[in-house]
Amino acid sequence: MTTDSREVPMPLQHPASKEHFIPVYSNFIIGGIAGCCAKTTIAPLDRAKINFQTSEMYFNVKALFRFLRESYKFHGFFSLWRGNSATLTRIFPYAAVQYSVHERAKSVLGIHEMDLSHMSLSSVRIRRFVAGCCAGTSSVATTYPLDLARARMAVTQRVKYANLVDVLRSVYREEGIRSLYRGFAPALLGSIPYSGVAFFTFETLKEWRLSRTGFLNPSV
């Protein structure tokens, strides 16, 4: 009787299985680029939204297109991206803090490993939600002044504020340092359920994807 001594090749492990070893700076770069692309794409709509929020204009689709058309006609094409530089400046630190804090929170809460079979399902879900909340509150707290500056640049004429630094300097000099965090409490309260649900959903669907296909990355 002849024994087949040929070695059976082992299946290659998908590189995504090492996802939790990705360094923070990689999340920073990838998240920053993605955030900048998304924000730049919708910048005209974001500027229109802020305009309707800070004026007495009644919003509808027709009024939206009228605002975009008149902005282009009287102020030029690039006026539709007024304040976008401040948005992009905020996105990079926001993403860096959000992703790094989220990964750290997962480690502290004991849910950074792929195999969580030793924990109850309810415990995993609660900790995922808490990790997301920590990420959201930290990123909002550290970048809120930049978001305030972005909003002001979007609704004011260029002659008033030259750039992001000028906005922060003017607000600090004329209104005090506390004004840089005006409206911070509602923003923080809103970020808690938003980030908690967002990261919880992502981690849960990622786990479901892994259990069904063996891939960690939902985009594969």
From TrEMBL:
Membrane topology: Multi-pass membrane protein
GO CC, one annotated term: membrane
Top-rank lineage group of the source organism: Eukaryota
One annotated GO biological process: transmembrane transport
Solcar repeat placement: 22-108, 123-208
Predominant place of localization: membrane
InterPro entries linked: MCP, MCP_dom_sf, MCP_transmembrane
Keywords: Membrane, Repeat, Transmembrane, Transport
Compartments (UniProt record): Membrane
Pfam families linked: Mito_carr
Family listed: Belongs to the mitochondrial carrier (TC 2.A.29) family.
Protein name in the entry: Mitochondrial coenzyme A transporter SLC25A42
Organism: Schistocephalus solidus
